[in-house]
Each structure stands twice: as structure tokens, then as C-alpha cells.
Specification:
The structure holds 2 protein chains of 2 kinds.
Chain A lengths: L9 E5 L2 E3 L7 E2 L4 E2 L4 E3 L1 H16 L8 E7 L5 H10 L3 E5 L9 H15 L4 E5 L9 H10 L3 E11 L6 E7 L3 E8 L2 E5 L11 H7 L4 E4 L1 H4 L7 H4 L2 E8 L7 E4 L4 H11 L4
Parallel strand pairs in A: 1-6, 1-8, 6-7, 7-13, 8-12, 9-12
Antiparallel strand pairs in A: 2-5, 3-4, 9-10, 10-11
Helix pairs in contact in A: 2-5, 3-4
Chain B lengths: L2 E6 L8 H13 L1 E6 L5 H8 L5 E5 L10 H14 L3 E4 L3 H13 L4 E8 L5 E5 L4 E7 L4 E5 L16 E5 L9 E7 L13 E5 L8 H9 L3 E4 L1 H5 L20 E5 L5 H4 L7 E6 L12 E4 L2 H14 L3
Helix pairs in contact in B: 3-4, 5-8
The chains are: A alpha/beta, B alpha/beta.
Bound molecules: flavin-adenine dinucleotide and adenosine monophosphate.
The site of adenosine monophosphate has 22 residues of chain A, from helix 1, strand 6, helix 3, strand 8 and helix 4.
């Protein structure tokens, strides 16, 4: 096992509370924001948390002074994402919550999260999911790297750290459409991970009991030095003007193969002018 | 007249279909100039010129492309400033969206991704919640930074090839960056790219390691081959073929799903397809709920029969 540098790593994992995709999801209200009932810890952020846990385990475990902080921004209920992270194994949590944050787009979200990370940091590593599962678009990690002037290592399909005399070095792999890249960066860095990187663990009974004693720090905008007008609908640089549910797809023809289904398929395609 | 900057990063021998779409869309909005990150062959530059583009902005050093995303974002920001563009159009790959994200912060400008339609007043339409909502949005601050999904606009015919004027942009790469240390090309299939394909034949766990019958049908239809995560995780096909929430989102004219159960994460990537055909052994598979034409049957008999029939009809 590698020797870790004297001070342990402080890792932030950004976890979002999102509407469960297993239920119908809605946009509503005058300001066309997402309805957040039936919400869960974003599935894709579990991979970021698991990556953090594995890094700590590889490099000497919690006894080496490493610490994982689960961080979320969202309404009161969003703290559930932090609580679940604590049950899975994060050491402590932070919840940024403020009325004024409602309706934040990616730019406002990344502004608030950047201020939050500066306030509760410094961190050696900031880990995020590849995208939030509620229709957001992978903009936040890149914008955080830009705002915090950190090396950006996004869509990592693998992630390793090596301790060295001049600090930790990070190595990652990233898959593009036509090629794969290997990437290196010094710490501190911002890393988003894909669902290819690991198999997230579930909370167990011990973890659930231990989580009850872990601390969650609740912060408001004032605490992190932001004005309400800098975030939320007012601070956003884009605006949703209309949102309409699409008519759900309906089932068409269903046939059972009786030896000629391939031919009937071609008939169907010809009928649809798809050949 | 409004200046529209189109960012291109392909730099092959000729313009890709999605790149021609971006240039065509740009021309409907104003005067088009191009920012080009990588090295490019003369024929590629001439191709850009054939869309009436007079100026191509390029970085003055290769370093912009050696670091992940940050370098290209700096370059593109400076190209926007140099050109005075009010609209910036990019492709819709992960890297393009990330470059857009950072340019947005640098220029204090709103970014809208996954745009499928753009009105003259710059109202952008996109799908949300895995295609279950259609959302109209607008950039309210700064220039409009928009990433456009392939197949959203019709590419117009190019004019005669002509070399655009090159403008070199000095690029100062930020200090704290991730460096790209190695690059391995993936094998090319010769089939259309998934995001651009008119027809996609996709296979899942039911394919059981043998994509042959799917490839044959895809070739008969001039289509691309896609897969569920179960099939890519099994290593039967490249990860880049994965369709769904954590893979590609596609909207072809025709999506043929074979041996895929239709989990919510798979549907997220394909349910905006025009016509969906599904072949599955299990009549209760959720994929049938969204299929225009469903076949309860064995893909290993149905697909080859269809391929043969298409060939027989000389289609
Ligand atoms: C965070 C996360 C992200 C994910 N992202 C994606 C994603 O992007 N894309 C994706 O696809 N999945 C994704 N998944 C996985 C998804 O949940 C499903 O597990 C996966 O789509 C199942 O793949 P499948 O349908 O091929 O396999 P299965 O569900 O095992 O279905 C195989 C089907 O093949 C049928 N079959 C078997 N043999 C035959 C035959 N000879 N002929 C016809 N039919 C046959 C069976 O009846 C069955 O319906 C994700 C999961 C998670 C947790
Ligand atoms: N409100 C939030 N709270 C915590 N993390 C977030 C929030 N929004 C985005 N993130 C992180 O950024 C990643 C990408 O989100 P997005 O850019 O919204 O697709 C997510 O997987 C999270 O790790």
C-alpha cells in the first residue's frame, strides 16, 4: 500500500437530490421549476461517492486522516441525499439551503456551489457525478473547475492517486466517441466520474447506525457570502419560457412470430416508407 | 448583421454532417465565422469556405488541445471576443458541452445544451426528463451559447470550395490543468455515427455476444449499430455504442431494438425516435409499451429473415 503524505486527503463529494425517474416527473408553477417530491440521491452521484470511498481505502483508510464530506445544495428535503451518503460511508455532510436558490440554472448552481466549496474547504479533491439525472446537463462540473481554477478531469472511467514528494498526482481514463484518453493532473482537482468507474455499494446496518452520529452542517447564502440576486431565477443566465409534457408514446402493433415475422417487419417498414 | 461563431473540432479531411448542419443553422442567424481548435487539412478549410465562411479563427499554439477542455475554452472565449460574435454554436458531444460550460462562465453568458430547434428570436427547444417534456428556453445574459443536437436542422448545399482567411488567436492556457498524456483510437466501423444515423439497430443482453445478425440488418438499412448497457458492459461491443441515460441520446427515423428489455435508463436514450420496432422473446417486456411495431420472437430468426427479405426486394 502507498504511503500517504502526512496530512490526510479531504475529499468533497457533490450529491444531488433529484426526482426519482421511476415515477412521473413534472415541471410546474409560474417559474417552471422541477417538482421535487419522490426524490432520491441521484443515482449517478453514487459512483462519485464510491470512488471517494475506494480512494480512501486504497490509501490507508480513515486512520490516515482522510475525510469525505458529502455536499448538497437544495431545499430542506435535499438533506436526504447527504444522509444517504453518510450511511454509505461519507464522514460528514454540508447542506446549502436557501429560498433564493430555487430555479437556479447551471451557471447559478455552479456559482453557489463554488462559493460553498470555498467556504467549507479547502479540499484536495472534489468529486461529482457525470450528470444530474433530472434533466441537467453535465455543465456544473466544468463550470466549477472554471470558477475554482482547478484542473478539470471529467467523465473519468477510471481514477487513481499516487502520493509523491510534491503532493498527490491523479491519473484517469476518459472515453470519447472515437478515442480514449489518459489524463494526469496534480491535486487539488475537480473530477466527475461515469457509471463505468465502479459498482456503488449499498448502505449496511452498521453504516446506518453510524450515520446517526455524523455531523451535517446547514448553511444559508449569507453564510457563504452570496447575495440572493446572484443565484436562483434572478441570478440565472438562462430562463425557461415554456414547458409542455410530450404525449406519452403509446403501444402500436404487437405480433407473435409465426415463422414470417421478419417478412411482416419488412412490410411494416415499407408501409412507413422507411426502406 | 449578427455575427455567429461556429466552433468545430473535427479536423478530418471533410466536414462531418453535423458540422455542415451547424454552419447551415448559423447562416440562418447571421454572418458565420468559424473557430477551429485542431489541425486541419486544406480540403477541410476549403469546405468551411464553401459555406460562405470568410474567417477561421485558430489557436496560435497546439497547447490548447493538450489540456482537457480548459485550453479550448480559453481559445474559444478569445475567438468570441475577437470576432464580436453574439451567438456561439457548438456540437452536442460531452466535450463540446463542457467547452460551452466554461466559455459561458468566462463570458458571463447563458448556456443551453441539447437544442433540437432554434427560432429566429433565439428561443431554443430541448427535451427534458428523458424526452418526456419539451422545454423552450432562452439565454437572458451575455451572448447565446448553444449546443445543437445532430439531425436537428437540414444541412444546406455547399457552394464552391474556397479558402477562408485564417486569424491566429494567442492562447494562454490556465496554470492548473489536467494534461492529456495518451490517446488510443478506437476501431472505426464504416457505419454512420450513432448520433447522426437515420436508422439504428440496437442489441442487448439477448444478443448473447453475437452482434452479427444486427450488423447485417444495419448494413441492409444503411444504419448504425447501438447497444444497451448490459451488452457494452459484457464487452460484446464498444462502450461508445451504448444508448441510454449514461450513453448516447438518439432520435433516428427508425430504431430497431433487439433483445433489450427496455429499462428506464435505456428508454431515456431512444424514446424520441420517430418509429420504434422491438423484437423480444418475452411478451411482457416493457420495451413493447413504446414500440410502434413489436414482435414477440427470437431475434436470431426474425432479424436474418428481415435482412434477407430486404435484399430480396432489392431495396
Ligand atoms: C446508473 C445507471 C445507468 C444506466 N445507464 C444505462 C444506459 O445508458 N443504457 C442502457 O441500456 N442501460 C443502462 N442502465 C442499465 C439498465 O438499467 C438495464 O440494466 C439494461 O438496460 C438492461 O439491458 P438489456 O435490456 O440488454 O438486458 P436485460 O434487461 O437482461 O434484457 C434482455 C432482454 O433480451 C430478451 N431476449 C433474450 N434472448 C432473446 C432472443 N434470442 N431474442 C429476443 N429477445 C431475447 C429477454 O427477454 C430480455 O427482455 C443503467 C443502469 C444504471 C443503474
Ligand atoms: N444542487 C446540487 N447539489 C449538489 N451537487 C450538484 C448539484 N447540482 C449538480 N451537482 C453535481 O454536479 C454533477 C453534474 O450535474 P449537472 O451539471 O446538473 O448535470 C452532479 O452529478 C452532482 O455531482
Amino acid at each position: 500500500m502507498d504511503e500517504a503524505p502526512a496530512n490526510g486527503l479531504h475529499i468533497a463529494v457533490l450529491v444531488k437530490h433529484v426526482p426519482d425517474a421511476q415515477f412521473d416527473r413534472h415541471i410546474s408553477g409560474d417559474d417552471l421549476t422541477t417538482v421535487r417530491s419522490e426524490s432520491i440521491l441521484s443515482e449517478l452521484d453514487e459512483y462519485a461517492l464510491e470512488a471517494a470511498l475506494q480512494l480512501v481505502e486504497t490509501h490507508g483508510g480513515p486512520a490516515s486522516g482522510h475525510r469525505i464530506t458529502a455536499i448538497t445544495m437544495g431545499p430542506a428535503g435535499a438533506v436526504a441525499a447527504v444522509k444517504k451518503s453518510l450511511q454509505i460511508g461519507a464522514d460528514d455532510g454540508v447542506h446549502l439551503t436557501d429560498e433564493a436558490l430555487g430555479g437556479s440554472d447551471a451557471s447559478a448552481t455552479s456559482k453557489a456551489l463554488a462559493a460553498l466549496l470555498r467556504h467549507v474547504g479547502p479540499f484536495d479533491l472534489i468529486l461529482t457525478g457525470m450528470a444530474s439525472t433530472d434533466g441537467e446537463t453535465s455543465l456544473v462540473p466544468a463550470q466549477l473547475a472554471e470558477r475554482l481554477a482547478l484542473p478539470q478531469v471529467t467523465f473519468a472511467a477510471s481514477l487513481d492517486l499516487t502520493p509523491g514528494d510534491d503532493g498527490w498526482k491523479l491519473a484517469a481514463r476518459r472515453d470519447n466517441d472515437t478515442f480514449a484518453e489518459t489524463i494526469e493532473a496534480p491535486l487539488p482537482a475537480l473530477v466527475s466520474v461515469t457509471d463505468q468507474i465502479n459498482d456503488p455499494r449499498y448502505p449496511n446496518f452498521k453504516g446506518i447506525m453510524a450515520a446517526k452520529k455524523k455531523q451535517i452542517q446547514v448553511l444559508s447564502l449569507t453564510d457563504i457570502g452570496l447575495e440572493p440576486a446572484e443565484v436562483g431565477l434572478e441570478g440565472s443566465w438562462t430562463r425557461v419560457e415554456a414547458a409542455a409534457p410530450r404525449p406519452p408514446r403509446t403501444q402500436g402493433v404487437l405480433i407473435t412470430d409465426e415463422g414470417d415475422a421478419g417478412i411482416r417487419l419488412v412490410d411494416f417498414l415499407a408501409g412507413q416508407k422507411l426502406l | 448583421m449578427t455575427t455567429v461563431l461556429v466552433f468545430l473540432d473535427h479536423a478530418g479531411a471533410s466536414l462531418a454532417k453535423s458540422e455542415r448542419e451547424l454552419l447551415s443553422l448559423g447562416a440562418t442567424l447571421g454572418d458565420v465565422v468559424v473557430a477551429l481548435a485542431g489541425e486541419a487539412e486544406q480540403a477541410y478549410l476549403d469546405g468551411i469556405g464553401s459555406y460562405g465562411v470568410g474567417e477561421v479563427y485558430r489557436p496560435d499554439s497546439a497547447e490548447a488541445s493538450d489540456v482537457l477542455v480548459a485550453g479550448k475554452a480559453v481559445f474559444l472565449t478569445e475567438a468570441v471576443r475577437a470576432s464580436g460574435a453574439e451567438i456561439l454554436l457548438l456540437g452536442n458531444s460531452y466535450e463540446m458541452k463542457e467547452i460551452a460550460a466554461r466559455v459561458g462562465v468566462r463570458l458571463e453568458s447563458g448556456v443551453i445544451t441539447d437544442v433540437v430547434a432554434l427560432a429566429g428570436d433565439l428561443t431554443a427547444t430541448k427535451a427534458d426528463f428523458a424526452g418526456s417534456y419539451s422545454v423552450d428556453c432562452r439565454v437572458t445574459t451575455g451572448i447565446a451559447v448553444l449546443t445543437i443536437k445532430p439531425n436537428s436542422v437540414e444541412a444546406t448545399e455547399a457552394g464552391l470550395p474556397s479558402p477562408p482567411r485564417e486569424v491566429r488567436i494567442p492562447v494562454e492556457v490556465p496554470e492548473a490543468v489536467a494534461r492529456i498524456t495518451g490517446r488510443t483510437d478506437k476501431p472505426v466501423s464504416g457505419r454512420p455515427e450513432l448520433a447522426e444515423a437515420r436508422v439504428i439497430v440496437a442489441g442487448g443482453r439477448g444478443v448473447d455476444g453475437n452482434f452479427g445478425p444486427l450488423e447485417d440488418l444495419a448494413d441492409a438499412l444503411g444504419g448504425a449499430v447501438g447497444a444497451s448497457r448490459a451488452a457494452t458492459d459484457a464487452g460484446w461491443i464498444e462502450h461508445s455504442a451504448q444508448i441510454g441515460q449514461t450513453g448516447k441520446t438518439v432520435s433516428p427515423q427508425l430504431y430497431i431494438s433487439a433483445g433489450i428489455s427496455g429499462a428506464i435508463q435505456q428508454k431515456a436514450g431512444m424514446q424520441t425516435s420517430k418509429v420504434i420496432v422491438a423484437i423480444n422473446k418475452d411478451a411482457d417486456s416493457p420495451v413493447f409499451e413504446i414500440a410502434d411495431f413489436g414482435i414477440v420472437g427470437d431475434l436470431f430468426t426474425v432479424l436474418p429473415q428481415a435482412t434477407e427479405e430486404i435484399r430480396k426486394r432489392g431495396l
